Amino acid sequence: LNDLSRLDMLEDCKLQRCHRVVHVFYDLWLWRSLKNAHVSHLKSLTHFYKEPLAHTDFRGLKHLRLEHCPRLEGVMPRGSALPSLVTLDILFCYNLKAIFYYNYPRSSSFELPCLRRIHLQELPLLEHLRDDDAVLAAPAWEELHVRGCWSLRRLPRLDQRPGKKAVTVSGERAWWT
Q1: What distance in Å separates the CA atoms of residue 100 and residue 56, rounded to the nearest whole number?
Q2: How many angstroms separate the CA atoms of 15 and 37, rounded?
Q3: Is residue 136 within 8 Å of residue 112, measured between CB atoms?
Q4: How far apart are CA 85 and CA 81, in angstroms?
Q5: CA distance 123 to 90
Q6: How far, in Å, CA of 75 to CA of 24, rounded?
Q7: What is the pLDDT of residues 115-157, one digit of tens each?
Q8: Which of 34, 47, 37 is nearest to 16 (CA)?
Q9: Which tens digit of pLDDT belongs to each residue from 57-102?
Q10: What is the signed CA dihedral for 59, 49, 93, 139, rounded to 10 degrees?
Q11: 18 pairs with which residues across the strands?
């Protein structure tokens, strides 16, 4: 990449085996056009996006996949907007405790209007999708797959709207107990 001036038009990002990367994005304008992000095998990654002090809107992001990032602590600050997110896959990130993490006090809604599927696998420390008890508005959500997330004790509270179809949840029998 010798001309970084056009990164604001980046639509697909696949980042693998860059073991010194700590944050995929840190206060950059890349998120405006980004549609698909796949991050895997980053040994030092602690956050997908580390926000300094500004509101962030990943308006184009539709598919986010994070896998084999053993030091990942959080994916997005809980004030980030993901209005187009359809799928979220997080696999084999053993240090992750909350997907949407606390960064500083801010009142924000927890809305994922296009979300259809979440797949969570081998996240033994994951306790929450979001580190507070906010109500999740996800009217299109259809599926939640949970495997090896033994610290996840409760599912998010959903915004209950009449006539909305229930989310199908699958997980190991031992996890349900």
Answers
A1: 13
A2: 8
A3: yes
A4: 9
A5: 8
A6: 10
A7: 999 999 999 999 988 877 677 888 899 999 999 999 998 888 7
A8: 37
A9: 788 899 999 999 999 998 888 777 788 999 999 999 999 998 888 7
A10: -30
A11: none
Half-sphere CA count of 105, side-chain side, radius 13 A: 0
* 124 contacts: CB under 8 Å, gap ≥ 6: 94, 148, 149, 150, 151
- Residue 1 pLDDT > 50: no
**DSSP string computed for 56-97:** -B-TT--EEEEES-TT--BSEETT-B-TT--EEEEES-TT--
What pLDDT shows up at residue 146?
Answer: 94
Residue-level pLDDT at 131? 72
Residue in the structure block whose two tokens are 């709207």? 161
Among 90, 79, 160, 82, smallest CA distance to 114 is for 82
**Mean pLDDT value across residues 39-68:** 83
Q: CB under 8 Å to 61, separation ≥6 — which residues?
A: 31, 34, 35, 36, 37, 82, 84, 85
Q: Which residues of 88-105 are buried (b: 16+ CB within 10 A; e: fewer)?
A: bbbbbbebbebbbbebee
Residue ranges of alpha helices (H) inside the chain are 173-176
